[in-house]
Amino acid sequence: MEEAEAVRSNFIREIIDSDLEKGTYGDKVATRFPPEPNGYLHIGHAKSICLNFGIARDYSGTCNLRFDDTNPSKESIEYVEAIKKDVQWMGFSWGERQFFASDYFEQLYQYAIQLIKMGKAYVCSLGPDEIREYRGTLTEPGKESPFRNRSVEENLDLFTRMRAGEFPDGEHVLRAKIDMAAANVIMRDPTLYRIKHVAHHRTGDAWPIYPMYDFTHCLSDAIEEITHSLCTLEFENNRELYDWVLDTLGLSPRPYQYEFARLNLTYTVLSKRRLIQLVEEGLVNGWDDPRMPTLSGLRRRGYTPEAIRTFCDKIGIAKSDNMVDYAMLDFCLREDLNDRAPRVMGVVKPLKMVITNYPEGGEEEFEFPYHPEDEAMGSRKVPFSRELYIEQDDFREDPPRKYFRLSPGREVRLRYAYYVTCEDVIKDPATGEVIEVHCTYDPKTKGGWSEDGRKVKGTLHWVSAKHAVQAEVRLYDKLFTQENPMDVPEGQDFKDVINAESLEVVPGYVEPSLASVEPGYHCQFERLGYYCADPDSTPGKPVFNRITTLRDTWARKERSQQGKKA
RNA sequence: UGGGGGAUGGUCUAGGGGUAAGACGACGGGUUCUGGCCCCGUUAACCAAGGUUCGAAUCCUUGUCCCCCAGCCA
Q1: CA 20 to 30 Å from A118, out of A70, A82, A277, A497?
Q2: A320 CA vs B66 C1’ separation (Å)
Q3: Hits for CB < 7 Å against strand B across A residues 148-207
Q4: Are A212 and A191 in contact (CB under 8 A)?
């Protein structure tokens, strides 16, 4: 089993190749994955993780895990732990290279003092609203703050006292002295430090002031001797400030920032704000709800790290806005699990079948391979008896054209077992619904094949009723009804296009071997799809999540036939 | 009406003066004890208009459309 094809190149790898050739950093390549611990990682982060750790792996470089924890009012240790778990699960390791921006608070503070001494930063005592007013607009230049020309001494005094906790929140900020008329609004004397009397999850009450992202990130990169700092497109405007801080401080050699397009996936939302809304408003069952695009949700659903990594390789890295088809992810999952997942029998929407000429009370066992194309995966015994469950979809009283499953008078194969012929149907007298099918079997077809060469077109999966294990089966579907959940009429939002049928819980029956599988167990229910045992499973009462169905050309054909009739 | 980016089949991504390539999807066929997998085939693209050139997706010019930026968020 090979791990995908060779990683395709992209503009970032070209830049690295060129730096290596020029010897910009010698032969060193150092990246970092810098999440803010204020939420759970999602598949968009996986793209960044694969990019950064993948580059480190391929260039024999390093990739640091760095928590960008400069805003204690939003961050917590809970998120730090969840993020570490998710990165590990993705299959990447940072070894000893785990850092926190908060590790650098003292150094950052010293750099700020250096800027003040250089006359490149000042304490501004304007309020938030005034700062906004003074900033100007996109088309008009800003005005200089009246505090812009405080002396170095006064700035030093004030900043030191900010640090000492002498002022309440909002009283002052430290700003870079750049250019209030800059075309790039970010360069109009950006805030470097704000006062926040909030305990930090790591530094506690040690700091009443906290550095801003733009000041922290570039310097953290420099401190860690990062060579290539990769982030998403919305930070392109911030690059000028990134460069300004490092160059003003005269740091060399220094990291450079490169931006790539973030991932968008059809039928999903990938912004922290919106994911939080789904969780907090109870529209899903938590961060790890199997419908969530969070890594914890995907993991619980049953998506494998291998599939997600392959997916990230396949979608590539570029700079144009994109909307990747969710089908691509499912393809990667099926590709992975097709090789590795044991084939087992599970009936999700049961219909009882009675084999009328099979001895009452009789039973026998068959030895089924776990994977017909991979003998090494072994086998297990599966019981057979007079009463079975088959899939409702596998019987039609009035079969459409080209339907070759069971219908009155029709002979089909019960997988690995016998040929059976439908002789009778039992209906609910009240509803007319078929509740039982009566069949006869041909004892000479034991094992599921016939010596006389007689062919049957349909093969059905089944579970012996008396031996069946009842399982809760959670059938998941897309969380939203439209490709782009953001594309809604005025006055509506993404929550108005949530798919009411994104979760259907059904009582199913599975073969006895599945009675006590471990949570996280992946398998293929033959002919149905890939399933994963949920942590809610208990011994004897498994819970299975449907990850995705098998490719179903019959369903598609039938759908298009109906479309033609309509 | 400021600045920063971006535009290649339905989708994602290559190609950076010389036959527009791959993957997903869709469609058709072969095979099959999973209507799965696998195999084969079909479909379908360079934002527009000018220009340079023997030759332009690529270089130049002018447009068009889309995204990002006015947090003491990241």
Answers
A1: A70
A2: 10
A3: 169-170, 173, 183-186, 190-191, 194-196
A4: yes
